[in-house]
Input
Amino acid sequence: DAKTTQPTSMDCAEGRAANLPCNHSTISGNEYVYWYRQIHSQGPQYIIHGLKNNETNEMASLIITEDRKSSTLILPHATLRDTAVYYCIVRAPSSNTGKLIFGQGTTLQVKP
Amino acid sequence: DAGITQSPRHKVTETGTPVTLRCHQTENHRYMYWYRQDPGHGLRLIHYSYGVKDTDKGEVSDGYSVSRSKTEDFLLTLESATSSQTSVYFCAISEPSWEKLFFGSGTQLSVL
Output
């Protein structure tokens, strides 16, 4: 599975969009980009995933560059409850079932 | 964490004692997983299950055993707890397509 690089921490004002970047320059053609987040003392929560097209769901939007070497998770209107550690993971769905490599992620602090 | 219950939520035990953690799901998902989370190591897979009585080892399985006699229950047993097994344990479930994992709220285990 490809390695990802994320900033250690970010701040965002409440009500503004939070844009969380992720670099995955060694991504393979069959690997998806997944985003999870972990709110303090809770289990990780799936947010969104995509292969090459931009994706949107009720939680967030995922923008993947055309060369697929980087992506951005967008929380359109961040709230205080979005304060969490956000993990970008790249993997092929059929590979090593369950072996998620979460890394250190980005700690997003949403401020009033 | 809808549909996934971990018990107990917190446990303190002594070195050398057996400990069993339980994961119960109401989603009828086929795959279940046990992870541990430690500072500096992220989430690491202990054991996982493809179905009833069908289990396999993850990356940190030494000292742990699992059982799955029913679709909804996945038990993690520490036969003789050690201080190095002090950790937060997360259960997760998914469907075989493995598009996304759903995690429980975790069990904080302290081995003294």
Summary: The interface with chain B takes residues 34, 36, 41-46, 49, 93-94, 97-104 of chain A (CB under 8 Å). Residues 62 and 73 of chain A are 5 Å apart (CA to CA).
